[in-house]
Specification:
Elements (H helix, E strand, L loop, with lengths): L3 H4 L4 H5 L13 E2 L5 E2 L9 H77 L1 H16 L5 H24 L1 E3 L12 E9 L7 E6 L2 E3 L2 E4 L1 E8 L2
Parallel strand pairs: 4-8
Antiparallel strand pairs: 1-2, 3-6, 5-8, 6-7
Helix pairs in contact: 4-5
């Protein structure tokens, strides 16, 4: 016996189907107005592959920025190292110059003090040299000579010559006088004598030898100076 629905021509499948069925959409991709797919969060409906690519690009750009920053720091560090090395080199050069100058000053000071000390020693011996020369001159003028006296005279002459030679070796030099133009820096005039015009202001005679030690005047020569008469 057929039911009323069967009588109306409805099958069981037709009986269970809804009258307005809904369409199920599983593609969650987003599209631009031009129809191109847009990357996004897969949870928000974006393509997972596109989301991963975008994440890789962002991370790559971040790494590039870090690399640029590291290179800038390295360049700055190299610049500072080069600047420090240059300053250190200049400081070394300046120290060497100052050390050389200090050494040269000390050497000059030492040499000056040594020369001064030698000059003082030589100056203190001038009186001894003078006495030897005076004794020698007196002995040579003596008319009472005997054999023994001549031997003594020769010994005195040798002693005076050796003594003077040793002092000359130390740097002693005699001041030129007789026949030279009178120089108040080297000569001490103890007497003036009238002379011809061509002998005016010339040293005529030396009373005492003057000596120099290097450029230092130990004592002036005591001399007689000529003056032309009117």
């Amino acid at each position: 016996m057929m039911s009323s629905k069967q009588e109306a021509g409805q099958t069981p499948a037709q009986e269970s189907a809804p009258e307005n069925p809904e369409i199920q959409v599983t593609d969650k991709r987003r599209f631009s107005p031009e129809g191109e797919p847009v990357a996004g969060d897969p949870d928000d409906g974006g393509d997972p592959v596109m989301g991963q690519a975008e994440s890789v690009l962002v991370e790559l750009e971040f790494l590039r920025a870090q690399l640029r920053a590291a290179e800038e720091k390295r360049a700055e560090a190299e610049r500072k190292v080069a600047e420090f090395a240059d300053r250190f080199r200049k400081a070394q050069e300046q120290l060497k110059v100052e050390t050389d100058e200090q050494r040269a000053r000390m050497q000059r000071t030492f040499e000056q003090r040594l020369a001064t000390g030698r000059g003082d020693i030589v100056a203190s011996l001038l009186d001894t040299l003078d006495n030897l020369k005076r004794a020698l001159a007196a002995a040579e003028k003596s008319e009472k000579r005997e054999t023994d006296f001549d031997v003594l005279l020769e010994g005195l002459r040798a002693t005076a010559g050796l003594f003077e030679a040793k002092m000359v070796a130390l740097g002693l030099s005699a001041v030129p006088s007789v026949g030279e133009e009178f120089n108040p820096e080297l000569h001490e005039a103890v007497e003036l004598v009238v002379v011809p015009a061509d002998q005016d202001n010339k040293v005529i005679e030396e009373y005492q030898t003057g000596y120099k030690f290097g450029d230092r005047l130990l004592r002036p020569a005591r001399v007689r100076v000529g003056r032309a008469g009117n």
